[in-house]
Amino acid sequence: MMALKYLDDSVRTGTDLEIDIWREANLVAVRGTSRYGLAFSAAVRGFSAGVASNTGRIDFVEKVVPPLSDPKMQLLREQFFERRIRCRRLGVRERRQAITGRTIRTSLSLNRVPLIVINSLVCSNEDLPHWVVVTGIDDAFLYYNNPLDAVHRKRKTRISTLKEFIGYHGDQSMVEVWRE
């Protein structure tokens, strides 16, 4: 919602939009959302979107503890690939690459809003993949907004810690949203 509102001030944020995005992006078999789900949510609302991942695989599935049962894994695969097909039909761009400071800096310089995955341990007691919105980067810090913050505040992390900050147990994903 933060990315959509930043790019289009007429976007009406609120519980209805939040629930719609969650439904579109959620990977029911696991607690979390996929890069394709978030990109799909932006694309169906008329925004341009792109996804990047250093693995090319289903987001974080090997990191789920306890491991998923066969039926849940099958459901997860079906959801992931179905959402990817829908994204391709909507023109969502895909690339496989590491998510680095340079990647993020380029995204921001193109007036795109990058959403990246971090480990929620950065801001809570849970070890889960968590999406944040990057709002800026300079020579010292990466600045971001955490949608779970009860009070809106700009957070930052040192550039020297980006390798550890970006991603979840080695899996990196980024969604970029923009207006053409």
List the helices and strands and how they pair.
Elements: H1 2-7, H2 15-25, H3 35-43, E1 48-53, H4 70-89, E2 93-96, H5 101-109, E3 113-119, E4 129-137, E5 141-145, E6 155-158, H6 162-165, E7 173-178
Parallel strand pairs: 1-2
Antiparallel strand pairs: 1-7, 3-4, 3-7, 4-5, 5-6
Helix pairs in contact: 2-3, 3-4
Total domain count: 1
Q: What is the H/E string?
A: HHHEHEHEEEEHE
Side by side, the strands of the main sheet go: 2-1-7-3-4-5-6
The description of the largest β-sheet is: 7 strands, mixed
N- to C-terminal distance: 18 Å
> What would the principal axes of the Cα set say about the shape?
globular
Number of strands: 7
**Number of helical runs?**
6
Secondary-structure class? alpha+beta
Low-confidence stretches: none
Helix content: 25-40%
Radius of gyration: 15 Å
Instruction: Quote the average pLDDT.
Output: 90
Strand content: 15-25%
Using brief descriptors, characterize the structure shown.
180 residues; 33% helix; 6 helices; globular; 23% strand
What does it look like?
The structure is a single chain. The chain is an alpha+beta fold. It has one domain. Helix content is 33%, strand content 23%. It has six helices and seven strands, in the order αααβαβαββββαβ. Strands 2-1-7-3-4-5-6 form a seven-stranded mixed sheet. A hairpin with a 3-residue loop joins β4 (129-137) and β5. The protein is globular and about 45 Å long. The model has no long low-confidence stretch (mean pLDDT 90). InterPro entries: DUF3335 (IPR021770).
